[in-house]
Design a protein that fits this description.
- It contains three helices and two strands; from the N terminus they run H-E-H-H-E.
- It is mainly alpha-helical.
- Helix 2 packs across helix 3.
């Protein structure tokens, strides 16, 4: 369990540090809801396609999902 949990936790931490999402028409509560739903959708999509849950794969799908919901992604690097 630790072998999966720690890398996933690091992935989520790094994903949060690398991309900032903005939408002046939505609140922080909207952001949290959308982010949670997009994360679950990304994981389902990867599992359905038999694709490993790597940070890049999760981040790519989350970014597309968030943008579909009106959030603008800006990389912080």
């Amino acid at each position: 369990m630790k072998r999966i949990f720690i890398p996933l936790l690091m992935c989520l931490f790094l994903a949060g540090c690398g991309t900032v999402y903005t939408n002046p028409a939505k609140s922080e509560a909207d952001f949290n809801k959308d982010k949670s739903e997009c994360e679950m959708a990304a994981k389902k999509d990867l599992a359905a396609g038999g694709i490993p849950e790597t940070c890049n794969a999760i981040n790519e799908r989350m970014k597309r999902c968030m943008e579909k919901r009106g959030w603008k992604a800006t990389d912080r690097w």
